[in-house]
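MODEL INPUT / OUTPUT PAIR
PAIR INDEX: 1
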Amino acid sequence: MSSNKFTWLPRLRSAFTVLAAALIGATVLGTGVADAHSHITHAEPADGAVLQAGPPQVSVTFNEKVEDPELAVSGPDGNTYSVGDVHVDGRTLSVDLAPLGPAGLYTTHFTVTSKDGHRIEGQRTFTLAQPGDGTAPQQ
């Protein structure tokens, strides 16, 4: 009987080492891709804020520069209160507001393109506690 009956053991260890390295690499690369999407780091007014008076504008700041921004604010009456073009200052997007109207929940809707090319959309809300004296501008 030969003393080399376990000659396959070093090859098996090498195969397991290669497999483990591949799994670790895939995990690290997969995490990097998931973290590549843009996300909001700050919003004015803050998400969920309750305001006594309408702000002159809303802004959203992302963790990185974004492209093709769209930013609009709608009121509890379903009308749009944002006016003019989206302003871009580095990672911050803002849009001017007409004087707000009814008290209630206002929603800031955004759509942007991340650096990785993915289109991202979302929203933030604030509540106007007291009715404003404005009416929705004609769009």
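PAIR INDEX: 2
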Amino acid sequence: MELTWLSAVLAGVVAGLGLAVPVGAVGVLVVQEALAGGRARGLAAAVGVAATDLLYAGAAVLAGAASSDAIGPHAEPVRWLAAGVLAVVAGRGLHRVWRSRGTGAWGPAGGRPARPGGAPGVALRFAALTVVNPATVVHFALVVSGLSRALGSGTDRVGFVVGVFLGSGSWHAALAVTAAAVGGRLSPSPSPASRTVTGLAGHGLVLLLALGLALRG
């Protein structure tokens, strides 16, 4: 039985949420970006993540279960690459926070830490971070494999991919908006200590997630 276009979109939303809701390293980094840079940068990060999820969902729709088979032999080096990238991101963040601790040199008025680049750069950075997550394409390959008969037409497949973008994007956007609101409560004059603790905690968690990914066997 084939899905209607709306049902395909809803199936995509569920698939996108199924990947995004169990918050991992990328979700933590979206929260950290919004806390540090505000709502606009947090939303840009959410768009970058959702755009990559859309591309992976599209690849899974085109290749079906073959996408999972293709990445299987390379899963181990990709896992190490992902752990390495996350460790570098966490290390740079921890270094930046520690170097600026207690100086008040965190950024412009409003108490946000200074962050390099604009919203497009943030979106591209988070898209690149999401690309190195092999679980993403495997997740969508398995979902698409289960829906292979139901996603009969090209329109249904497009609807599914659009739904994935909406599901992933809405969840990460909600994380960003919530984190920005929490960060806004610290404005206009958060203490250097609170900003240091927030930064160390966020990037420290990403480092732990990177270690967990590296040790997963």
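PAIR 2 NOTE: The CA atoms of residues 83 and 210 lie 5 Å apart.
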